[in-house]
Structures are given as structure tokens and as C-alpha cells.
Amino acid sequence: MEKYERHPAPEKLLRQITTEAVNLLALGGPENIKAAALPEAGVSLIARAWGLPQEDLETSTIVIQKQKELTASRASEAALPDDQLLERYDGGMVAELLWGLFETAIRLEDGQDRLTIYQLALMLADTLDFDEWIEESAPTEDG
């Protein structure tokens, strides 16, 4: 059984949200560029909430911007290597990610910033099929 982090490292959270932004752009095409605004904002808020180095934020921002450009030009390549894209999340991994986002939200003072992180968590729970995993994991009447 894999052990999940109850308090994921902020650097890991930043990396995951950056990857999800790239995935969203790469899979959705040019019409999805606006949809990537939420994870892009989340990257900035995660870095601020946890006091991550500016270089970490810049790296994430550059990767997302590069993917936006690739997506706008309809290029077939992605800003991240294939082995970093489309990671299959199981329910525990999604729970870990959401937990990290909620911990991030409570570190932010501004209500609008907390709302942005909350909306990002809802979006990721939906796109990563968290509800489906919960339903599949529910105990049956048999036991």
C-alpha cells in the first residue's frame, strides 16, 4: 500500500499544479487557454502562501507560458517531457493534492485568494475524477 503525504511539500504541490496546467493546455487546445488561468493563478498563490523561492515560481510560470505558446501555435510537442505529463492519479493522490491546496488556502490572508485556491481544488477534484474514486471505494452492502 502506498503511503500518501498528509502534508505534501509545497514544492511538490507547485510542481503538480504546474503539470496540471500544462496537461490542461496540451489536451484542450487553443480554446482551453483561458481555462488554464485558474491553475496559473494557483501556482502564484502557492508560491506566495508557502514563501517559496522566486526562482521556483519563475520556473513554473515559464513552463506554463511556453505551453500556452505551443498550444496557441497548435504544436504537437509539450513544454514538459512525456514522462511528466498525464500522470494517473489514484484517489489517495488526489486527496493528497486537495489537502495541500486546502492547507495553502488557510495560509493566505485575502479571501479572494482563498476562493481561487478553493475553485482550483474543485476543478482538480472534477478533472481527476475524485468523486468516481470515492464511489468505487465505498463499502458495499455485502461488507
Would you kindly provide a written description of the structure presented here, covering whatever features stand out?
Helix 1 (10-28) packs antiparallel against helix 2 (37-50), helix 1 packs parallel to helix 3 and helix 2 crosses helix 5. The mean pLDDT is 85. 66% of the residues lie in helices and 0% in strands. With 143 residues, the chain is mostly helical.
Name its key features:
143 residues; mainly alpha; 6 helices; 66% helix; globular
Order of helices and strands: HHHHHH
Whole-number average pLDDT? 85
How big a fraction of the residues is strand? Answer: under 5%
Q: Strand pairing plus helix content: what structural class?
A: mainly alpha
Write the layout of secondary structure elements.
Layout: H1 10-28, H2 37-50, H3 54-72, H4 91-107, H5 111-127, H6 130-137
Helix pairs in contact: 1-2, 1-3, 2-3, 2-4, 2-5, 4-5
